[in-house]
């Protein structure tokens, strides 16, 4: 898909580096307590945006999980086209978080191919020209990896365009993570914990 078409699609959606090894993220009191409604690490909004052919096509990705976990987020990317999955950090679109003191985030997931995660800010939410980092394929195995918020770990894709705002601005007014991928992929998210940040349950 050409950059302009992808940017337009993302602008309409939902009014919408490689991993590095690091010590465990700083524990936050109460962070392990889930919300009353379905959530993963208190993140309640895991949403298929309708961009690209996905299963589910739209709506929540949360499904009952096994092995002691309450929920997982599962999505299938079909075809060689851009797909978009959104996670709102404050569990509602209008919320934002200051992540400038955070070292990064720890993700437990499985994926059959590479994908990317974009850090979307409140003032630059729309469009494909965003700061991103690669989420490597796990070849279907469930793994846990830490992704640093060091600026050097984040980049952009020429196909999508260079961000017009600095990375520290994206960190200071973070609205959500947007997972994107251009290839067929089977993905499951089991945990997403951001260092020094506790999502508010709604």
Can you characterise this structure?
The chain is built from two helices and twelve strands; from the N terminus they run αββββββββββαββ. With 202 residues, the chain is mostly beta strands. It has one domain (3-23, 35-194): Sandwich (Jelly Rolls), CATH 2.60.120. The chain has a six-stranded antiparallel beta sheet with strand order 3-1-6-11-8-9. Strand 4 (62-64) and strand 5 form a beta hairpin. The chain is globular, with a radius of gyration of 15 Å. The N and C termini lie far apart (36 Å).
CATH architectural type: Sandwich
> What structural category do the secondary elements indicate?
mainly beta
Given the C-alpha coordinates, what overall shape results? globular
| Total strand segments | 12
In round numbers, the mean pLDDT is 87
Helical region count? Answer: 2
Low-pLDDT segments, ≥5 res? 1-30
Query: What fold name goes in the CATH topology slot?
Result: Jelly Rolls
* CATH superfamily grouping: Galactose-binding lectin
Q: Strand share of the residues?
A: 25-35%
CATH class: Mainly Beta
List the topology elements.
Elements: H1 3-12, E1 46-48, E2 53-55, E3 59-60, E4 62-64, E5 71-78, E6 83-88, E7 104-111, E8 115-121, E9 132-135, E10 143-148, H2 167-172, E11 174-181, E12 185-194
Antiparallel strand pairs: 1-3, 1-6, 2-5, 4-5, 5-12, 6-11, 7-10, 7-12, 8-9, 8-11
């Amino acid at each position: 898909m050409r950059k302009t078409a992808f940017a337009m699609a993302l602008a309409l959606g939902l009014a919408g580096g490689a991993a590095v090894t690091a010590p465990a993220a700083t524990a936050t009191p109460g962070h392990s307590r889930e919300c009353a409604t379905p959530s993963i690490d208190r993140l309640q909004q895991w949403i298929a945006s309708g961009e690209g052919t996905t299963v589910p096509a739209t709506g929540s990705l949360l499904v009952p999980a096994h092995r002691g976990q309450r929920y997982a987020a599962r999505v299938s990317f079909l075809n060689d086209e851009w797909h978009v999955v959104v996670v709102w950090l404050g569990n509602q679109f209008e919320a934002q978080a200051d992540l400038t003191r955070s070292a990064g985030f720890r993700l437990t997931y499985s994926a059959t191919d590479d994908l990317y995660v974009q850090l979307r800010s409140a003032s630059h939410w729309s469009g494909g020209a965003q700061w991103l980092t690669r989420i490597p394929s796990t070849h279907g195995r469930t793994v846990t990896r830490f992704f640093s918020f060091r600026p050097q770990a984040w980049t952009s894709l020429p196909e999508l365009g260079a961000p017009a705002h600095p990375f520290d601005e994206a960190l200071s007014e973070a609205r959500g993570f947007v997972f994107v991928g251009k290839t067929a992929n089977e993905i499951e998210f089991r945990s997403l914990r951001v260092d020094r940040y506790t999502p508010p349950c709604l």
